[in-house]
Amino acid sequence: MSRALASSRSGDERQPIRLMIVDDSTVARAVLSRMVEGDGGFEVAALASTAEGAIDALATVSVDVILLDLEMPGAGGLKMLPRILDAARGARVIIVSSLAEEGAQVTVSALALGAADTMPKPGIGRFNGKFSEVLLGKLKALGSADQAQVARHRGAALRAMGTEPMQCLAVGASTGGIHALQQMFSALPAELAVPILVTQHLPAAFMTVFARQLGTAARRRAMVAEDGMPLLRDIILVAPGDAHLTVENRGGKAVVRLDRRSAASGCLPSVDPMLTSVADFYGGTGLGVILSGMGRDGLLGAGRLVKAGGSILAQDEATCAVWGMPKAVTDAGLASAVLPPTQIARRVASRAGEQSWK
């Protein structure tokens, strides 16, 4: 199996989640170790004080999740993150660093490089309480998602792909999605000649930095969506962190309508309202993409889009950080293809017409 967690459990789902803690602070390593081991569902399998030490240890130790600081001697956690991920053999990385403040560029950079999640590290003496509760929740959520992935996807039926030229591309993602988005958009042609909508589960403070980085990878303009904005060709509009990004018909033209009502998924922003509104306005010319993410957000909207004649593409399990959202639409028989992000890009371009490859 491709996931370290799956291989480490070998049929016994009650085994603890194996962790590696990488932090140059002896106190931080000790406090984090006591915190996670006190829960009973985790085992600290390795400790390291540098990123280089972590890579050496991963040659002989198999873990499920790595807690990684960014400020350390040597090359540091962010620069070494790609090498750590290569050495980790499928283990997830959660950044726990004082640099990972809301809105910080380093946070989005770490997520774009492949970190599953980030958390700001509190000062010594403040590791308990809310920090402990949130960190253990993230660890358990990642562990539970991987346990569910042990039951491998057996190949749900795929729907026929629509044939009408695409007039709108809508992409939804959550945990692990920023990395997948970077891969997909980097592989797209420079011109698709359609508006592009993106809903990524992130707090509002991250969105400006996220949009800027996404625009760089996509080689086109990207901005955080505002009410009343027109949907324009090859402009990426990103859902703000405090509202759903939807499409409204104003005199026959598509414009942005931000919606803050509760969504069935409980997410804000949610992929469901975005896909539902694309279905209502674009019908069979709408194309949705569901990338890595926990839970089932996007399932209801995908069903609405398919019913209207549109199509859904889903990221495959092997390349997902968490195969939750793509699995939901795949198992429901809504996907026309289940592929890695770079291959999804080729399918998207094929729906845009031959001119997109010129």
Can you describe this structure in just a few lines?
It catalyses: L-glutaminyl-[protein] + H2O = L-glutamyl-[protein] + NH4(+); [protein]-L-glutamate 5-O-methyl ester + H2O = L-glutamyl-[protein] + methanol + H(+). With 358 residues, the chain is α/β, with parallel strands linked by helices. Helices cover 36% and strands 20% of the residues.
SSE pattern: HEHEHEHEHEHEHEHEEEEHEHEHEH
Tell me the CATH superfamily of the largest domain: Methylesterase CheB, C-terminal domain
Average predicted local confidence, pLDDT: 88
Bin the strand percentage.
15-25%
Give start-end ranges of low-pLDDT stretches.
Answer: 1-12, 147-154, 354-358
Number of E-type strands: 14
Could you characterize what this model shows?
Strand 1, helix 2 and strand 2 (42-48) form a beta-alpha-beta unit. The protein folds into 2 domains: 4-149, Rossmann fold, CATH 3.40.50.2300; 168-357, Rossmann fold (3-Layer(aba) Sandwich), CATH 3.40.50.180. The protein has 358 residues and is α/β, with parallel strands linked by helices. 36% of the residues lie in helices and 20% in strands. The longest helix has 20 residues, at 130-149. The strands form 3 sheets. Strands 8-9-7-6-12-13-14 form a 7-stranded parallel sheet, sandwiched between helices. The protein has a 5-stranded parallel sheet with strand order 2-1-3-4-5, with helices on both faces. The protein has a two-stranded antiparallel ribbon with strand order 10-11. Residues 165-355 form the CheB-type methylesterase domain.
